[in-house]
Design goal:
Four copies of one chain form a homotetramer. Chain A has helices at residues 14-23, 44-47, 64-70, 82-92, 109-115, 133-142, 151-165, 195-198, 213-224, 257-268, 317-332, and strands spanning 4-9, 29-35, 73-76, 96-99, 129-130, 145-147, 174-180, 203-204, 230-236, 243-250, 274-276, 294-300, 306-313. In chain A, the strands form two sheets. A seven-stranded mixed beta sheet of chain A has the order 8-9-7-10-13-12-11. The first copy, chain A, is 31% helix and 20% strand. By secondary structure, chain A is of the alpha/beta class. In chain A, helix 6 (133-142) packs parallel to helix 11 (317-332) and helix 7 (151-165) packs parallel to helix 9 (213-224). Chain A is globular and about 60 Å long. Chain A folds into two domains: 4-127, NAD(P)-binding Rossmann-like Domain (Rossmann fold, 3-Layer(aba) Sandwich); 152-315, 2-Layer Sandwich (Dihydrodipicolinate Reductase, domain 2). Chains in contact: A-B, A-C, A-D, B-C, B-D, C-D. Chain A binds chain B through residues 175, 177, 179, 181, 196-197, 199-205, 207-208, 231, 233, 235, 237-242, 244, 246, 248, 282-286, 289, 299, 301, 306, 308, 310, 312, 347, and chain B through 175, 177, 179, 181, 196-197, 199-205, 207-208, 231, 233, 235, 237-242, 244, 246, 248, 282-286, 289, 299, 301, 306, 308, 310, 312, 347.
Chain lengths: 347, 347, 347, 347
């Protein structure tokens, strides 16, 4: 297989690490450059000794131009705002980009600027594709710039997309009660993320204020053809990886659980990473750990009016790096699952 | 202080252990008998070596009649159905009873029998008091038989009681998304509760089917004066203790966060175990670990129409044993906080 | 690549699960049969939903003869005693066997019978090869029957082998203080392994009594050419996977840390799964999670008389299933690392 | 009871928090001042919301002189070097001091300066008492300045003291393989202590370099009447609290397990916080969590020549704050267990 030269910009965070873990074994990929603001010149495996002997490449000290000159695809795994500062230059040199930050996920600059800050490359927003392949597979294939979705939006949008598209979602009824492992906060050094402050505890955070809300609303509204409002509550679970979303909605028309299962089955037919669980089963974040799956189950109340969808992903994989590789595969014409075949890590 | 002789029936489960931990240091209590189906004759501290030198009393081999003859108050920490089999005999011998099972929590036998099984002592239901002191303090004082609330209902009812009583709760809008530590399942030996099946994972269980639902509905409906329906989803958190309830409801009238805080403040005035957090703070189960507190916070959306209440308790303490001691204190005329003063266990 | 048909006998334990996870993606392997005493006829993915869509094969209901007739290699991941009951029949039908139990790890039947029970197939012990490829690679290549090492012995023997072979180990000075994750106890249902009994705690078990002791002594004595005694203390860590061995020994002659590092480097040259850490680094079980590596570091005291070796493995991988696949690769003439390339799972 | 006014200098670390938790319920203590370098003026309960409504006192903004003027006893829970800077001034104003840092634990200034740095108050070393009450109870009663022991030395010295005093310890044979929960590192903000870097992993650190080594050697040598060398290896366990020491030594004379149990029983007679476990039992850090106990068990090899002692404490309690309160009780003439009666926190 012809190998595509790629760079990972920001490879010393957790999403970067997961990308490197996936890409180093990807048969269509040649890891040509890794960068890190904090560790230039040091070997990747010095920072992540788990990869000793596997990825000993040092973090690059080249300029972005030099990197752009020798790679074909760039993954940016750096904070929003920083991402939009460098991506136009990679594009200008002919690279294609998968951006894991929030900078190119929004169609309307106003929405981005309401929740984040001023956008310095708004002209790229129209072209950028929201990289949720289960909704935008064809656009991704052609994209020069993919805005890789946030972890929570991936979980929530995949959980509700079939209902939204079928116009079954009451647009003001959606509640997304989500629970995430600690790696969702990144490889940050914060007291609140230290072991003794997280272990054996559970808490909500950023109630009604989390920036992933508009992303969920954009995608669900697009599918529903009408503005959908999401009440989103994120929580922190004392585990390293995984998101479970418990999604509540009212239906516009009464439906049985069987009806909805069939709707979901059809919607996700041909999408290898969404697994609709058999009736009676409920998802566990442990079943998708280290893999690109989204596992779904649903329950309907007696009257068929209220639905509860359970949706789980690995926040670093389908919620970040795995999905980025899935997008990369589509962009390169590779099989969608290439390099993403390792089974979930259990127990 | 005159010490009351008490027995703990079923002292080898986790709620029993927590009761014993509290009662052995309670200045108004003399631990006269402990029982266990599994370990008759063995010293308590052989089963729970943490209590070595503190509670070495063996599990009793006496009959219930013998125990009843020498104690004044009985705590029953055994499964439902078993509890109602023996409680009438303790009452008949003049004991007062705090029952930690579900058998005496319901006012209507039909509701109990719909969710559990046939009730063998329905004549006691009218007399039994639902032991949530923040709602039923005066009845508890006089009670001969207290039905100590379930852990989830304690968390949810305390979280929503002020809204229900103020008729602010839209009765069909309540969603209780609750997350519990593993001790909530008791000291059971089940594959699904083993370390390797729980660690580093998160899952929902018994969606729309959990038996604590009717208990929540009974109490909230009683306060609201109209039937309140609760959509309840329990989840399992990889931690030992703690419940966090994220409670969603629509308001019948628009209210600001300040309005609701004031409502809560007044409702819980004089109730030492409910702590309304300062604005901007959110509760963490770690802050109530090992203590009888319920910590509350609330958020209201922009329109003042939708409220999110965060409620945390320690499932074994305020959700079981601590609340049982609080009820005991009320029944005996002790200060409500007696024996419950140890600060939460942190970090 | 020509695929070898294999069976996994006892695929519903944790070692079995890990074997299946590895073998299903192994390019030289065709998973032809899985068995389980507990779940005959049920799909593998019903028991392990993590593998849904990946391994849906039902646990076989065939006889051992039927399975033997259609596979070339059998992995037995069942308890000792059970293993030796069936392995002779697989061999008799021409299969080659990698046995993950203790039944074929000992050269002397007396040693086995002292620590376990009567051996029912002692005639096979001479032929069986102890499957630690770093010590017995050539014998493994030819073996019809491999006794796959225990998890603790793998950790300890790899940690001390270079010293033993160089006659530097004082034979009565070896202490192996080992710490294991909970999956080392297997997928058992025991109160002592339940989440609430393990979480946030640490304990030793089977002090001076653990059955892995004679296995360590056999291998180290073989290398040293003199009987080596091991004082072995296993401990339980509140984590799912991983073993760290802290190995103490006195040296027969004074050596510097540099001397010993060079000795280890040479010993493990050409062995792709042993990683000697750079000076100053210490191993972490997290760095080998899900992989077949053994990471080693060592420290020597000022006088050069006492050495401390730190050795880590993943107990389910290099300590069980990964090593079994490594042995399989050698037996089949495959590259030793085939199917074992997935980087460690981090974070 | 007459209440003693006390100050806690450095009350915003974990040892400080544990001290405050204990002292606020101590019947002989009046918490008159708390200080924190980081949070002057803020209420204690704002930093530790677990204590809301219990300790709302703000961190003092007074000078040390002002504090000294109004308290009788000072607990210093600040880093070494900082402690010796202020303690002389508290003493000069007539306060008695329990110092939780390392600054006053050593009898010889040279030993301190070899492992730490220059000592600025060496004249106090002779007067200072090493606050391990099981060894120095009488001196503590009279002390003006107590050097409260380190967590690891408490665990190790209590584990080996009877052997040392009986001259049974071969002085060059002692190995202390110790495992600590993460709170042992204090309330520091370090990447290596973040949840994702600790969870589900196990590692050693500071092998042969940890500063608690000379403290162990000082006390054991003192008891043995001859220099005892300790090979000490600390490890990090993914749990919040607890230390388990696995202590290996050779005996100078052969002894049975029964002999040694009797020796330990006599040594610790009258010491309420040391619990020698019954034969066959092994300690678990969970059994001492939140309490001032040290639980001990021992095993002897067949020849009666090598002993393994298992010793557990809660590093924040008996390893820091609990022991400080025990020392305080002795200094004040209170019962040794006063304020330390809360049973261990389980499960």
């Amino acid at each position: 297989m012809n190998k595509v030269k790629v760079a990972v910009i920001g490879a010393s965070g957790y999403a970067g690490l997961e990308l490197v873990r996936l890409l180093v074994r990807h048969p269509g990929c040649d890891l040509a450059a890794l960068t890190s603001l904090e560790y230039p010149g040091l070997p990747f495996s010095q920072i992540f000794p788990a990869l000793a002997g596997i990825v000993d490449l040092p973090f690059s000290q080249e300029s972005e131009e030099e990197i752009a000159a020798r790679v074909e695809v760039v993954f940016t795994a750096i904070p929003h705002q920083a991402a939009m500062g460098i991506i136009p230059r990679f594009l200008a040199q002919g690279c294609r980009v998968v951006d894991l930050s929030a900078d190119f996920r929004f169609r309307e600059v106003g929405l981005y600027e309401k929740w984040y800050q001023a956008h310095t490359a708004p002209e790229l927003l129209e072209e950028a594709v929201y990289g949720l392949p289960e909704l935008h597979r064809e656009e991704v294939r052609q994209a020069r710039l993919v805005g890789n979705p946030g972890c929570y939006p991936t979980c929530v949008v995949l959980g509700l997309a079939p209902l939204a598209q079928a116009r079954l979602l009451q647009p003001d009824s959606v509640i997304a009660d989500c629970k995430s492992g600690v790696s969702g906060a990144g490889r940050q050094v914060l007291l609140g993320l230290s072991f003794c402050e997280v272990n054996d505890g559970f808490r909500a955070y950023k109630v009604l204020e989390h920036r992933h809300t508009p992303e969920m609303e954009q995608e669900l509204s697009g599918l529903a053809g009408t503005p959908v409002k999401v009440t989103f509550t994120p929580h922190l679970v004392p585990m390293s990886r995984g998101i479970l979303g418990t999604l509540y909605a009212k239906l516009t028309e009464s439906r049985s659980e069987g009806d909805l299962r069939e709707l979901y089955r059809q919607f996700y037919q041909g999408h290898p990473f969404v697994r609709l669980l058999p009736p009676g089963s409920l998802p566990d974040t442990r079943n998708v750990r280290g893999a690109n799956f989204c596992d779904l189950a649903l329950r309907v109340d007696e009257e068929g009016r209220r639905v509860i969808v359970l949706s789980v992903i690995d926040n670093l994989n389908k919620g970040a790096a795995g999905q980025a590789v899935q997008n990369f595969n589509l962009m390169m014409g590779f099989p969608e699952t290439l390099g993403l075949e390792t089974p979930p890590f259990a127990p």
